[in-house]
Amino acid sequence: MYCEVRGEKTYAATGGKDYDASLPSVLFVHGSGLDHRSWALQTRWFAYNGYAVLAPDLPGHSLSAGKPLETIEDMGAWLGEFLAAVGAPPVHAVGHSQGFLDILELARQAPAALRSITGVGTAGEIPVNPALIDAAKNDAGKAAEMLLLWGFGPDAQYGISAVPGMQPIAIGRQIMGSNPMYEDLLACSNYNNGLAVAQALDLPAQLILARKDRLTPMKAGLQLADALRAKVTVIERYGHMLPVEAPKQTLHELRALIGALENAA
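^ that's the sequence the OP posted. Answer follows.
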């Protein structure tokens, strides 16, 4: 579906069903250089099992117009404006990598907009190698190749895919090569407030981490979990790109926390 945020046309995937704000809502936020397609399996399951789904493309990404946002703080503010634009009730927010930093900022700025938060393949700080930032500034395709090389675990590098007939690295290359990676990576690199924000939050939280993650190492993810007082699940054998690399396992963990909260409501 499309809506208008800050005067710009904004796209959000809804999992194949019309968005219905009377249902429990789940917000999915993509990582650096990615888009709503990161969450294809997860959004569809929730949309067809009693939830309303929102998976926006951030400004300047894929189907959303506008200039890319330059700071994590502004991305958090934008998410709050997006939720207001679509009339969403308090949401269960799920973010991958940079997307969870955006959610932390949303939680800091507008805590009433949230019911729970889940981070996937993330950490409180995500430093980025300056060489990668330079590559993204000059050649998004080259930077995408670098990120994908480090972002997927060993099975994916050998062509093993959770979805027969689809190669997630090739899909990632197609998406990231045409999206504003430079702005996203620079925003990540400049953001160092995540742990302090996490410590101040009082929300149900969980982290889904990957044993083979080389971009946001598990040690950093566990540090964030301590700050959030969050439940932690570690998925073995997989790397940073959990939503597309291990989609079924990621969905299983999301269903557990969000379903438990809804059943207890």
